[in-house]
Every structure is written in C-alpha cells, then in structure tokens.
C-alpha cells in the first residue's frame, strides 16, 4: 500500500443507536484517535459496546475492516495501517 493511502485512515465504532445500527467517528486528539470516546449527535460519548472498524478510501471506494471490540485493539490495528509504530 503506498503512503498516500495510509494518510487518511480513521477509526469508527459500529453500535446500536435509536433502534438501528450506525457507524460513529472516534474522537481525535493531537491527530490520533482516542477510541475511548465517540461522537454521537455532536456530543462525546463513551465507546463502550459495539465494534471498531478501520475506515479509509482506496481507488475512490470506501473500505472498512473490523479491528476489535476494545479501544486498545482498535488503536493497535490503526497504528500499522497508518504506517508507523505505536511508540
């Protein structure tokens, strides 16, 4: 994968909301995702529950890859996809 594709990899949380399932973006701090909180209707909410997915575009198409159910698993999957180590 070339570095331009690594540039915009986001984390989203898939969870039940108002009777249906939706993807919600993970809050970012200093350019890195903070998967303990997601944004639901403009408000930060704890990310407890649901599954995390990596979200990016490749050749104009959205790609989503499951990456775990805990914030730690999500962040550990995000780092190599972005092209750098977590340290």
Describe this structure in words.
The chain is of the alpha+beta class and 87 residues long. 18% of the residues lie in helices and 54% in strands. The protein has one domain (3-82). It has a 6-stranded antiparallel β-sheet. The radius of gyration is 13 Å and the shape is globular.
Write the layout of secondary structure elements.
Blueprint: H1 3-6, E1 10-17, E2 20-29, E3 32-40, E4 43-46, E5 51-58, E6 61-68, H2 71-82
Antiparallel strand pairs: 1-2, 1-5, 2-3, 3-4, 5-6
Main β sheet profile: 6 strands, antiparallel
Radius of gyration: 13 Å
The structural domain count equals 1
Q: Helical percent range?
A: 10-25%
Mean pLDDT: 86
Structural class: alpha+beta
Give the strand content.
Answer: over 45%
Please mark out the parts with pLDDT under 50 across 5 or more consecutive residues, or reply none. Answer: 1-6
Please report the number of helical segments: 2
The count of strands amounts to 6
User: What general outline do the C-alpha atoms trace?
Assistant: globular
Main-sheet strand order equals: 4-3-2-1-5-6
Q: What sequence of helices (H) and strands (E) makes up the elements?
A: HEEEEEEH
Spatial gap, N to C terminus:
22 Å
């Amino acid at each position: 994968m070339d570095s331009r594709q690594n540039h915009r990899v986001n984390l989203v949380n898939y969870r039940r909301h108002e009777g249906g399932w939706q993807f919600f973006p993970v809050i970012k701090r200093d350019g890195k995702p903070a998967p303990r909180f997601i944004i639901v209707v403009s408000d930060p909410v704890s990310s407890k529950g649901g599954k995390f997915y990596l979200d990016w575009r490749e050749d104009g198409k959205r790609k989503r890859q499951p990456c775990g159910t805990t914030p730690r698993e999500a962040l550990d999957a995000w780092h190599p996809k972005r092209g750098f180590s977590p340290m």
